[in-house]
Amino acid sequence: SINGKCFDWLLVSRRSCFRAGVRYYVRGIDSEGHAANFVETEQIVHYKGSKASFVQTRGSIPFFWSQRPNLKYKPKPQISKSVNHMDGFQRHFDSQIISYGKQMIVNLVNHKGSEKPLEQTFSKMVNSMANGMVRYVAFDFHKECSRMRWDRLQILMDQLAEQQDE
């Protein structure tokens, strides 16, 4: 109940059976475009007979890369150099568009350090795909929100506002 108005709010998460695994052991995509650790989360609001739904997905960055565990706290990501990333990448987003429609990618990885190549490759691949159904926003979450500066999330929210309304 908010301001005396009662409604039902349902939250459902569905984990994909393709490329399921634990962190660091399963990363990237397979040749069919299935992203590792893919989860679909749906919010459903029911109020006075009306219903609204919002679906959000998350998964590993959809190209061929790995992050093999070692004795370091955070192993360095390795982008595969021996495969055509675009085939699996395209399959991934073709499937996403068929299932969910227009896509808004929000990339929260670091823009420096060991994650920098992941962000740069992801950005480059989305741009080279040149699909009007896919928009990409990179937000360096660790830099912007360091020291618990959660108010800085407003920067991201402002970047996404128009598409969120749409």
Automatic annotation (TrEMBL):
Organism: Vireo altiloquus
Gene Ontology, cellular component aspect: endoplasmic reticulum
Gene transcribed to yield this protein: Sacm1l_1
EC code: 3.1.3.64
Protein name: Phosphatidylinositol-3-phosphatase SAC1
Alphabetical GO biological process terms: phosphatidylinositol dephosphorylation
Pfam families recorded: Syja_N
Catalytic activity from the UniProt record: a 1,2-diacyl-sn-glycero-3-phospho-(1D-myo-inositol-3-phosphate) + H2O = a 1,2-diacyl-sn-glycero-3-phospho-(1D-myo-inositol) + phosphate; a 1,2-diacyl-sn-glycero-3-phospho-(1D-myo-inositol 4-phosphate) + H2O = a 1,2-diacyl-sn-glycero-3-phospho-(1D-myo-inositol) + phosphate
InterPro entries: SAC_dom
Domain SAC: 1-166
A GO term, aspect molecular function: phosphatidylinositol-4-phosphate phosphatase activity
